Amino acid sequence: MSASSTVMASPTVYNGPTFWERLWRLSGINFILFAVIAYVLYGSQPHVGASADAVAAFYSGHSTRILIAAFVSGMGILNLLWFVAALRATFADKGLDGWGAAVTIASAMVGGLFLLLLTIPAALAVSIAGSGNATLISGLNDFAWAGLVLTSFPRAMLIMAGSFGLWRSRLISDAQFGLGVAAIVLVLLGGAAWMRGGFFAPDGMYSRIISPIIGLVWVLAVSSVLVRRSPATRAGW
Fold first, then answer.
1. How many structural domains does the chain have?
2. How far is it, in rounded angstroms, from Cα 77 to Cα 166?
3. Is residue 50 in some structural domain?
4. For residue 232, which phi and psi values (nearest 5 degrees)?
5. What is the domain range of residue 169?
6. pTM for the structure as a whole
7. 234 domain residue, yes or no
8. Which long-range contacts (CB under 8 A, 24 or more apart) does 55-62 make?
9. Which of 215, 226, 220, 100 is nearest to 164 (CA)?
10. CA–CA distance from 75 to each of 22, 35, 113, 178 (Å)?
11. Which of 26, 60, 100, 227 could potentially form a cystine with 91 if both were Cys, beta carbons 3.0 to 4.6 Å apart?
12. Is residue 84 part of a domain?
């Protein structure tokens, strides 16, 4: 009788809001894992101004790896959106729906731009790189680097809305909020990475590595705050 009761009761765990809320709070960590795996799989994309032959050789020679990385990246974007949904629910529970709306809008912009940037290498790997159209091949490769720079603005908005919302919710300290503000400024600075070469170019160290790492560290920090937080007082899930 007790075993039967246990079997009947177990589905309620998955039907309750606490299970889903905790699951989506962990989505930020899942996003980081997918992002790292995709970065390793994708490899080193040809730099701005690379010859059409070099670009075609990269996308044609590593097409399978690039397409797998695109799939993994897509999974990462899904987890990023669920992470933001958990953040928005947290703000709503505190009565800060304005900041919740801001993180929702910013995440939609980030997700949309990332999906666009995933489409370009996927299309190159599937067929465009083998078409022999040198102008199109080189242009799409450079377009992808320019798109990476422009993602700095919605990424900075996401960090801003999330940091201010957590601070207003009293879920982070003033010192942690200060680190969040620093992250906003540093990521926003990446939107000015238009030098023709070197550290501050679209394909330079800052835009390609430093700015994304700042964003990943912020997601990890916020995820730890959400995971440690007690369940919401109202059923957001």
1. 1
2. 22
3. yes
4. -65, 155
5. 17-228
6. 0.87
7. no
8. 55/124, 55/129, 55/137, 55/138, 55/141, 56/129, 56/130, 56/137, 58/129, 59/121, 59/124, 59/125, 59/128, 59/129, 59/137, 60/125, 60/129, 60/130, 62/125
9. 100
10. 19, 9, 15, 31
11. 100
12. yes
d(CA 153, CA 211): 11
Q: What is the pLDDT of residues 112-162, one digit of tens each?
A: 999 999 999 999 999 887 777 888 989 999 999 999 999 999 999 999 999
User: Along the chain (237 residues), what's the average pLDDT of each consecutive run of 10 residues?
Assistant: 43 62 86 96 91 90 93 96 92 91 95 94 87 87 95 97 95 95 97 92 94 96 87 58
Nearest alpha-carbon partner for 88 in 76, 79, 101: 101
Q: Are 145 and 151 in contact (CB under 8 A)?
A: no
Contact (CB, 8 A) for 214 and 187? yes
Give residue for tokens 């939107």: 191
**What sign results for the dihedral spanned by CA atoms 16, 22, 28, 29?**
negative
